[in-house]
Amino acid sequence: MPYFESESTSIYFEEHGSGFPLLLLAPGAMNSTVEMWANATINPLALYEDAFRMIAMDQRNAGRSNGPLDATDPWGAYAEDQLALLDHLHIDQFHVMGCCIGGSFALKLIERTPERVVAAVLEQPVGIAGGNGPLYEEMWRSWGAQLADRQDLSAAAIEEFGIKMWQNEFVVSVSREFVRSCPSPLLVLPGTDQYHPAAMGREIAALAPDGQILEPWNDSQQSIQQAVVAVRHFLESHTPTAMPHDPRGALNQALSEIIDEVQDLKQARWQVAPSDLLRPALDDLFEDLKNWARLLVELDEAQGVSPLTTMPSVAGRTPPNVWPGAVTADDVRRTVREHLDRLDQHVLAALAEQTDGPARAALADVERGLAAHRRLRDL
Q: Which of 249, 262, 234 is nearest to 22 (CA)?
């Protein structure tokens, strides 16, 4: 259950696949969560795992993510969450695919950091057209009602946030002037209903200097299959031909995963009865993870840098409550296995990047240790 903590905000995220990074900004309006991709006509999580390293997330105050409401710049606050998560994962450049409200999130991201967004796909984007403004107001007020029990949020704060977020025209998050100068290539798949007006998708594609439109794309199974291929081709055609050689970044990505696993495991151990065979195996893994973290930190410091100046340390992180309510030993096994699988991928990727002898030797030790801990799958 990976969470990213930034100040008073906790963001739930998932990673799927491998390759060039693809940030996924889900449909669902203000309840934009990973699970909402299952309702999309084109669900990248089910289609592109072989081609891209996909990062999916629950947006702030949706699903398992939470945080304060910033009424001074609502769209900017979401963009800062998304960029902070990518920084946490040591991702510089990336593609983005947004569906529904995700299209507006994506355009705001490009406005904030155009040098990092290589290309974007907007699947049935939202926007103010044909008198549909009241539909969005009804939507955000329904979302606000879900937050009514939050002790840290007042009714007035929720009202102010919702009004400020949805007060503009066009795609709400950015202006037409920005889209006219948008530097990132866009592929737009217009919607066909009041929440996702076809006219809005067409206008975005027409305004953008490097905008493409795919239409019709969802009127038949054949059209949908052709659109699935077109989206893949668009993203692959804009993917940099060679990933940058970044041995230190690969090393720190493995370190970041170790730190996350230490945090989760620190809590998980106490969810398992001392008599369970899983408990001593978790204790051994916990000690090894701490040793591996120290080892990789020492490698960085030997190169004259400290990763902990830009990466929260184990001591400095606020651990999320990833084990709420009743938890079974099987729940713990499943989560720890997921962590071990991700860490294995990061360690192998870091090994492939290293030319320094001590770094390769240290990562090889970690890989051998991971192989020994795979017996957790059988406990």
A: 234
**Residue 307 pLDDT:** 56
Better-scored residue on pLDDT, 108 or 256: 108
Q: What does the pLDDT read at residue 294?
A: 87
**Same domain? 157 vs 257:** no
Average of pLDDT values for 169-182?
A: 97
Do residues 170 and 48 share a domain? yes
Judged against a pLDDT cut of 60, whether residue 140 lies above it is answered with yes
CA–CA distance from 123 to each of 133, 200, 334 (Å)?
20, 11, 33
Query: What is the pLDDT at residue 244?
Result: 56
CATH code of 374's domain:
1.20.1260.10
Q: Give the separation between CA 268 and CA 283, rounded to whole angstroms.
A: 10
* Closest residue by Cα to residue 106 from 35, 22, 48, 13: 22
Instruction: Verify that 22 and 60 share a domain, yes or no.
Output: yes
Run of H or E residues at 193? none
Contacts of 14 (CB under 8 A, 6+ apart): 2, 34, 55, 56, 57
Residue 318, number of CB atoms within 10 A of its CB? 12
pTM comes to 0.69
Domain interval for residue 114 = 3-237
C-alpha–C-alpha distance, residues 28 and 234, integer Å: 24
Residue 242 located in a structural domain:
no
